[in-house]
Amino acid sequence: MKIASFNINGINGRLPVLLRWLEEARPDAVCLQELKAPQAKFPIEAIRDAGYEAVWSGQKSWNGVAILARGKEPVETRRALPGDDDDEQSRYIEAAVNGILIGCLYLPNGNPAPGAKFDYKLRWCDRLIKHARSLIKLDVPAVLVGDYNIIPTDRDVYKPERWQDDALFRSEVRAKFRSLAKQGWTDALRTLHPDEEIYTFWDYFRNAWGRNAGLRLDHLLLSPVVAPRLVAAEVDRDVRGWDKASDHAPVWIELT
C-alpha cells in the first residue's frame, strides 16, 4: 500500500499538477494540505475522473485538508483535532483506507515567534500529541501524515544557523516532535534514509529550488503496529520543478 502526503498550496490553481502526479505515481491514499478552497469548491469531479474518492475539510482562502483513496471511499472517522471546540481552522481530517487509520494534518506555521501565532502552534502540537497517544492506545495500524511545519533536526535544513529563531525550528517545536517519537511513532523517511540530505520544501524566493536550499517539513509517522510493514519511503522531488508547482514535493511510503 502506497500512502502519500502533498501540500498542494491551492488545489484549484494547481489541479493539473495534482492530476498529472496522481496518474504517474498512483498512490493508494493521499493526504493533501493547504487546499485554500471552501468546502463547495473542492474539485471532487476531477478527482473522481482520476480514479479517486475523497473526504475533505475546506476553508476559504486558507488551510484545508483532504484524504484521497484510489478506487474507494475513505471512511471518515474524525473531521477536526480534538481539544479545542472553538478552533475553526481546517487543519485535521482522519479516515480509514485499506485497514489503515490515516490522520492528515496541516500544523500551524507559527511565525512570527514569539507571539500569538506561535502560542497557537504550541497548543495545537499539544492537542496532536494527546490525540496521537490515544491512537497508540487503540493498538491499530495508524499513520499521521502531513505538513508538520517542523524541521526536526539540523540535517533537515540547508543552513540550520539561519533558522534558530524561526517557528519552524525553535527548540520548543522540535521538542514536541521528539515527544511523538517517545510515544512510539516512527519517522518513516529518516528510518530508511538516516544520513541522507532530504528536503520536501523549497521556497519560491531566492532561487531556493535551483540552489537546493530546502527544508524537510512533511512527515509520515507510523504507529508501532504498522511500522514493521514499512518497505519504502521517498520524496518525488522532481515534481517541485514542474510548471506551476507547489513549493512542496510529494512524500510517500510503501507498506507491505
Automatic annotation (TrEMBL):
Q: Which CDD domains match?
A: ExoIII-like_AP-endo
Q: Which cofactor does it need?
A: Mg(2+); Mn(2+)
Q: Where is this site: Transition state stabilizer?
A: 149
User: Under the GO molecular function aspect, what terms does this record hold?
Assistant: DNA binding; double-stranded DNA 3'-5' DNA exonuclease activity; endonuclease activity; metal ion binding
Q: Which residues form the Endonuclease/exonuclease/phosphatase domain?
A: 4-248
A Pfam family per the record: Exo_endo_phos
Detail which positions bind Mg(2+). 7, 34, 147, 149, 247-248
Q: Which GO terms describe its biological process?
A: DNA repair
Q: Which family does it belong to?
A: Belongs to the DNA repair enzymes AP/ExoA family.
Q: How is the cofactor bound?
A: Probably binds two magnesium or manganese ions per subunit.
**Swiss-Prot/TrEMBL keywords:** Hydrolase, Magnesium, Manganese, Metal-binding
The site annotation (Interaction with DNA substrate) covers 248
Species source reads Oryzicola mucosus
Signal peptide extent? none
| EC number, as in UniProt | 3.1.11.2
Task: Name the enzyme's class.
Answer: hydrolase
**Residues at the active site:** 106, 147, 248
The protein here is known as Exodeoxyribonuclease III
Give site residues, Important for catalytic activity. Answer: 218
